[in-house]
Specification:
Elements lengths: L2 E4 L10 E4 L3 H20 L7 H8 L5 H36 L6 H4 L1 H16 L3 H23 L6 H25 L2 H11 L8 H20 L1 H7 L3 H6 L4 H23 L5 H13 L6 H21 L8 H21 L5
Antiparallel strand pairs: 1-2
Helix pairs in contact: 1-3, 1-14, 2-3, 3-9, 3-12, 3-13, 3-14, 5-6, 5-7, 5-8, 5-12, 6-7, 6-12, 9-12, 13-14, 14-15
Organism: Chromobacterium sphagni
Protein name: Iron ABC transporter permease
InterPro entries: ABC_BtuC-like, ABC_transptr_permease_BtuC
């Protein structure tokens, strides 16, 4: 079977990226869909533009208004939707592979809840700027992940125990978040509620670029560790027999997954459903037992871009937070999945 191999540094091949060519086709189709939807998003709005006008504005031609609308308002939002969606999709693929459970998502384990807690502490106690809130979200996500990992450790970390501990920690953090909102000032509570819904409204290059760089670096590192992740799916004993340090590799992958979800949350707030569903949808597109993180990333990018387009235009001129739309998408997807699995069965 043909394989595309990229060598990134170490001669022993432990950090090579190997992509099976027959699995690239779903990713290529998803990339084309993302490009088409991105062009549609750049055209649509109060100032409707043609494809020629969008192309000219991207190259700095056309009127000042058209260039400003495309390059400064719409393009940062589209680009960040793609990057954040890809980060969420790949993070979900990493955790579902490590935990060997389709529910092993950062949404369920509670890492994005920890990021929300970190942001809430900054908003309610310090009234911080956008970058301080982003830093608080990143610190909160990493701290909650460390807490879950330590509480779940029993001569190693196993999937079901980590999920149960994560749900418990998430419930406690949700209670803490509610208490912080109740005791905050009205202005702080409103700011926290808007941020907590998950939104790309007002996204600019200066706000999104730091998180985008972190997401891209973490995604490259996760792709480099994909061969080791596949060996871990065979079990720790098999991975160790093939020369892969199981616990250390699991810790690195978890750290990368947390970095992805925390960076995405820092940029746009907690966005549900994408990390949970994107790997499962990608797996169905590939018709494979294991999910390719690259395909999951492109699936997440397409889902979030589509959700953001709907958030902007479904109730125009009023815009919804994209997190509201993704939650609705998640509910419909889970309902469809339940009906599909129980269809034809007699009670």
């Amino acid at each position: 079977m043909r394989t595309l191999e990229l060598r990134l540094g170490r001669p022993d091949g432990s950090f090579n990226i190997r992509l099976r060519l027959h699995r690239l086709w779903p990713a290529l189709l998803l990339m084309a869909a993302c490009a088409a939807l991105a062009l549609i998003s750049l055209r649509a709005g109060a100032l409707h533009l043609s494809l020629e006008q969008v192309w000219a504005a991207l190259h700095g031609r056309g009127s000042r208004l058209e260039v400003a609308v495309v390059q400064q308002w719409r393009l940062p939002r589209v680009a960040m939707a793609l990057v954040i969606g890809a980060a969420l999709g790949m993070s979900g693929a990493v955790f579902q592979s490590l935990l060997r459970n389709p529910l092993g998502s950062p949404d369920v384990v509670g890492f994005n809840t920890g990021a929300y807690t970190g942001a809430l502490l900054v908003i309610t106690l310090a009234g911080g700027s956008h970058f301080q809130i982003a830093g608080g979200a990143l610190a909160g996500g990493l701290a909650s992940a460390a807490l879950v990992y330590l509480l779940a450790w029993r001569n190693g970390v196993h999937g079901l125990r980590l999920i149960i501990v994560g749900i418990a920690v998430s419930a406690m953090l949700s209670a803490l978040n509610s208490w912080l909102l109740i005791n905050a000032s009205l202005e702080s509570a409103m700011s926290a509620a808007i941020w907590g819904a998950g939104t790309l409204n007002g996204m600019t290059w200066s706000k999104g670029l730091p998180s985008a760089l972190l997401c891209l670096l973490a995604m490259l590192a996760a792709l480099a560790l994909q061969p080791r992740m596949r060996l871990l799916e065979m079990g720790d004993d098999c991975a160790s027999a093939l020369g892969v340090p199981a616990e250390r590799t699991r810790l690195w992958l978890m750290a990368l997954g947390v970095a992805l979800i925390a960076s995405a949350t820092a940029a746009a707030g907690p966005i549900a459903f994408i990390a949970l569903a994107a790997p499962q949808i990608a797996q169905r597109l590939q018709r494979a037992r294991a999910t390719c993180p690259l395909t999951a990333a492109w699936t997440g990018a397409l889902l979030l871009l589509a959700a953001d387009y709907g958030a902007q235009h479904l109730f125009y001129p009023r815009q919804l937070p994209v997190g509201v739309v993704t939650i609705c998408m998640g509910g419909l997807y889970l309902l469809w999945l339940l009906l599909r699995q129980t269809g034809g069965r007699k009670p």
